[in-house]
Amino acid sequence: MVWGDLYKETLKTSFIMTKQQLQEELKQSMLAKDELRTSVLRLLLSSINYYEIEKGKAGYEATDDDILIVIQREIKQRKDSIEHFESAGRQELVDKEQKELEILRKYLPEQMGEDEVKSIVEQTIKETGSSTIQDMGKVMGALNAKLKGKADMGMVSQLVKEKLTTS
User: Fold this and answer.
1) Nearest-10 crossing angle of helices 35-55, 19-31
2) Spatial separation of the C-alpha atoms in residues 66 and 154, rounded to whole Å
3) What CATH code would you report for 3-105?
4) What is the pTM assigned to this prediction?
């Protein structure tokens, strides 16, 4: 099995890559002379190292959840950059950011579809007894625990807002 296939298999089981696996992936991309993947993985590993330093503990090692947070943060940065570059008419930079975004998404667990998320949102609203937009924080807190890393939380927030304003 090729290493790239290995990470696809591990992601199907909702397993997050460890820092060591990402470092191995970086080595493989360097050997394959894949400049874009190498660049993205270097930035990702640098962000993970920075996150570890941010935690402030000597010798702190990022957990799977920490790595997931960092990957999601990097994805959000790419999405924001794409939006800004599109408004500025910089298509070459939009293309570059989109390619980086696709590479980063491969390191997230498989994401839930919108229909699946909608049903979980409806169920959670019922469970929490929420009915107004003022209850959004309570609903999002419960959903964050259920959907962390499995769905785009921006989409989840939008769905909750729609459900609570139409209730």
Assistant:
1) 160
2) 19
3) 1.10.1510.10
4) 0.71
151: exposed, middle or buried (C-beta count within 10 Å: 0-12, 13-18, 19+)?
Answer: buried
pLDDT, averaged in runs of 10, over the chain (167 residues): 41 60 93 94 93 81 85 92 94 95 87 84 85 84 80 82 80
From 137, 125, 134, select the one nearest 163 (Cα to Cα).
125
CA distance 63 to 106: 18
* The CATH number of domain 114-166, selected from 1.10.10.410, 1.20.1050.10, 1.10.600.10, 1.25.40.10: 1.10.10.410
**Residue spans per domain, the chain:** 3-105, 114-166
What pLDDT score was predicted for residue 149? 72
